[in-house]
Amino acid sequence: MNIFKFEAKRLLKSCLTWALVCGFTIALFMAFFPSMRDSGIQELVETKLGAFPEGLLEAFGINEMVDFTDIIQYEAYVLQYIGMATAIYGLILGVGSLLDEEKEGSIEFLYAQPVSRYEIVTYKALSRAIVYLVFMVIVAFATMVISMIYKPADLKTIEMLIDIKEIFIGLTLAGYIFLSIGLFLSTVLKPSYNSVAISIGVFFISYIFGVLSKMKDKLDYFRYLSPFDYAMPMNIVKEGWNWSFVALGLLTIMVSIIGTYMIYGKKDLWS
Amino acid sequence: MYAIETENLTKYYGRHRGIIQVNIRVNEGEIFGFIGPNGAGKSTFIRTILNFIYPTEGSGIIFGKDIVKESKSIKKMIGYVPSEVRYYGKVKVKDLLDYANSFKEASDGQVGNLMKELDIDENKFMYELSLGNKKKVSIAQALLGNPKLLILDEPASGLDPLMQKKLFHLLKEFKDAGNTVFLSSHNLVEVGNLCDRVAIIKDGRIVDVIDLKSTIKDFGRIIDIEGNVPKSFIEELADKIILEEENRYRFIYKGEMDGLIKSLSKYQIKDLSVRKENLEDTFMKYYEEEEG
To answer: Mean of the per-residue pLDDT values for chain B?
Structure first.
């Protein structure tokens, strides 16, 4: 448990920084919402967006025309970009879990203590999972508070909050998938790699698979390679959950964690 | 029961040699030195017995426990000081020692006592510390929880002479309390002053294990001589000729000095120096023999 506490304490500062930046960005985007609603921008957006090919629109998460005057749809659109950041943060937490400590050399300190490799992995994964949850709860709470400010009078508060909650459950699931993939990568990558660069690279490679899947029907199965697409905010708001993606996501988490334990228990510390 | 016992302990990194069939027995209550040049396999041996890396072949036991299967319980009984202290940079010294203490269940106040004894500033961040101060933190964390065995890899590097003296004093006290020290070092004076026995490793293999007390007792003198002295005369005198050039010799002499001086007086001597043989000579001798 001491590893858990030590790790959580070390990660808290970066968690709050990420939450602050995400919250601030959401506030900034939401500040534009009243003007979206009032000045006939929707008509303008529809005209402009209508000129784009459908595949391209889908690639940007605008598969059906987004109603920017609807606060939930507007929010879902904004949150899919925030979701990229939250997914990358999940990856950074995962990849950095063991890799950063090997890079810094502090892993020797930990290995010299009376603690097994399995305990190290367990507490490190657990601390990161909890820190990530705290981060997502803060961002979700901030989103709810900000949305209350701009909520149209005709929309029931509870309905809006439930939709935001659903979006964040989806983003948290995607984040956990990336975190577990990152955790697995941290057991196989050499410490010379930069965990942040790896995280950004992995996210965008998977994201590009998602984009390609939407641009060509033949490449539809590429969607499975993009965990971010498993719980796209706009899809959740408009179509609800895709349970096969949820199952695939949970399976990915399970396989990554099992793989992490199997490899980490047997691996040599890098020289 | 031995504190450390290995049997044919071997480690290869892929095709590269780490250590080959290392057999070492460290008695409880002794200070055991481990010396060898860079790349000889000293750190690989330590990392293997600490289970940082897995042996390719062979086995090892520390206080009767298997180094691979029972590594966790072994670490409850040992303290480790790495050659290069790379701890969490953004953590304060006090927090780091408290963290180490949380694993070792040391008695109340031990952290404070060690910080005082080793003159450690608890409020500094690890990244702010000099090499020597980092070493002090590492020594303090290793001593937490009263371990039975200390494994030290170049513990004195970076320490000022005063702190080195304090460390040696601490190690002697630690030994006098019935504990064991495994000391890997390049510093032969340090090893000579502290250790009961020394293992010499070269190219991954143990070349020899020396009992220092009996070896030091057997030490002769190193004679450097330049002059018109016949080789047959030197061969008669020398226990071992180390260097032989034109009219110049270096050899180990174990007889009486008076006899040497008197017998040399017959010859024309240009230069003569005499000094006591030390551990470094023994150490170098082993390597030169091997290379020869």
So the answer is: 90
Q: Is residue A245 part of a domain?
A: yes
For chains A and B, count residue pairs whose Cβ atoms are closer than 8 Å: 57
Contact across the interface for A109 and B13, Cβ inside 8 Å: no
In a domain, A142, yes or no: yes
pLDDT at B76: 94
Does A255 reside within a domain? yes
Strand order in the sheet with B240-245: B240-245, B248-253, B221-227, B269-276
- Is-contact B54 B68, C-beta < 8 A? yes
Residue B49's nearest CA partner among B29, B93, B19, B28 is B19
Q: Across chain B, which distance is largest between two alpha carbons, in Å?
A: 72
3-state SS assignment for residue B245: strand
Residue closest to B188 by CA, chosen among B285, B255, B97, B105: B285
Residue partners of A71: CB distance under 8 A and separation at least 6: A33, A147, A150, A151, A152, A155, A160
B65: tokens are 């426990």
Say if CB A77 and CB A62 are below 8 A apart: yes
Name residue B103's beta-bridge partners: none
CA nearest B89 in A: which residue? A104
Half-sphere exposure for A76 (CA within 13 Å, toward CB): 32
The total number of structural domains in chain A stands at: 1
Query: How far is residue A97's CA from residue B122's CA, in Å, rounded to a whole number?
Result: 27
State pLDDT tens for residues B137-168.
999 999 998 899 999 998 988 888 888 888 99
Strands B269-276 and B240-245 come out as: unpaired
At residue A61, does pLDDT exceed 80? no
Cα distance between residue A173 and residue A161, in whole Å: 18
Using pLDDT thresholds of 50, 70 and 90, give the confidence band for residue B105.
Answer: confident
Residue A215 corresponds to which tokens in the numbers above?
């641009």
Instruction: Find how far residue B190's CA is from the centre of its chain.
Output: 7
The pTM of this model reads: 0.85
Chain A residues within an 8 Å CB radius of B54:
266, 268
Q: Would you state the pLDDT for residue B292? A: 43
Residue A271 placed within a domain: no
3-state DSSP helix/strand/coil percent for chain B, to nearest 5? 35, 30, 35
Q: Which of A106, A110, A119, A123 to mutate to test the interface with B (most CBs of B within 10 A)?
A: A106
Smallest Cβ–Cβ distance between B50 and the set A2, A111, A116 belongs to A111
Q: Over range A181-186, report the average pLDDT.
A: 96
Contact B54 A115 (CB under 8 A): no
Q: Which domain holds residue A183?
A: 3-266
Q: Within a 10 A sphere around the Cβ of B157, how many other Cβ atoms?
A: 17
**B25 and A CB contact within 8 Å:** no
**Among A243, A249, A231, A245, which residue's Cα sits nearest to residue A76?**
A231
Overall average pLDDT of the B23-44 stretch: 93
